[in-house]
Amino acid sequence: MNKHFFGDTTVLLGRSxxxxxxxxxxxxxxxxxxVAMMLMFVYVFGGAINTGTDSYVNYLLPGILLITVASxxxxxxxxxxxxxxxxxxxxxxxxxxARSGVLWAHVLTSLVANLVSLVIVIxxxxxxxxxxxxxxxxxxxxxxxxxxFTLALTWLAVIPGLSAKSVDGxxxxxxxxxxxxxxxxxxxxxxxxxxxxxxxxxxxxVTSIVNALRALLTGGPVxxxxxxxxxxxAGLLVVAYFFATITYRRKIS
Length: 253
Description:
Blueprint: H1 5-22, H2 25-45, H3 56-86, H4 88-93, H5 100-127, H6 136-163, H7 167-172, H8 174-179, H9 195-202, H10 205-218, H11 225-252
Helix pairs in contact: 1-5, 2-3, 2-5, 3-5, 3-6, 3-10, 5-6, 6-10, 6-11, 10-11
């Protein structure tokens, strides 16, 4: 690792964060879609959905948080694509800086931006009646899972951000990620789904992550879901990081 890696990454992170803070509409837009979805499901469909819980917003929130992250990482891909097309990457290569610092700056910016969006969504959920029986340890576990999930999806976003041929292509990868929670336990219990759909829903990563977050937030028993969720997040992170770094090396070689 370049001895100047941390200093270079910090400087580049400051640059990326300034770009985000100058266009706060991206963070607001990222939060608005999940908030609108939460409002619609709680106040329009919530009365018709039987989840076996007293508060549908409590049931719904974990899935909405994952959708928020999936929406947010799309902007990481777009920012990377813009930098690639502007030639800034070539300019950075001519400077004596750590090359991996460029990617890490974008990844850390994604963490910061998504944190703000998640706080906004949780704040709206509290106004809507969300209440949690979680203690400090449980909230730290929730934060850890969301951090790992955000890192995994962000490194996944790096790949289309570097390799896409158009702006639409850079952002389109997030659509399946946003749709995946609908085929999970995020909105309704998987037991209510038809056989083949239920089989898929119960064995895809979002369900275990949602179940773990829901159990932690409500103070209920987590069981094995937390280990399955961590395994999915860690596995996706390793694979995404591996292919993202390969893609980056090919682009700058």
